[in-house]
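INTERNAL TRANSFER SHEET
From: sequence group
To: structure group
Subject: Amine oxidase domain-containing protein

Please process the attached sequence and return the structure record in the designated field. Keep the field labels unchanged so the import script can parse them.
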Amino acid sequence: MISMEDHIRTRNSYEQAQAGIRHSDLSIPIIHNGKIRIQFAGEATHDRIFQTAVGAFLSGRRESDRILNDLKK
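Return from structure group:
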């Protein structure tokens, strides 16, 4: 028989951030030569309502706004 304790490390679907890291820190884009090259969206990157579908949606909106603003430069 398999007990839950045998698989205790597989219960969570995410890795917790290091101490001192804020959720908003996860949304900082990678910039190269003054242009945004890599952006991060998803529920874990929202600073107030992480771990929700709304947080995921809003982070996507945030990044799409960031793309549009970057294109206007």
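Handover comment: The beta strands are 30-32, 35-38. Residues 22-72 form one domain.
Transfer complete.
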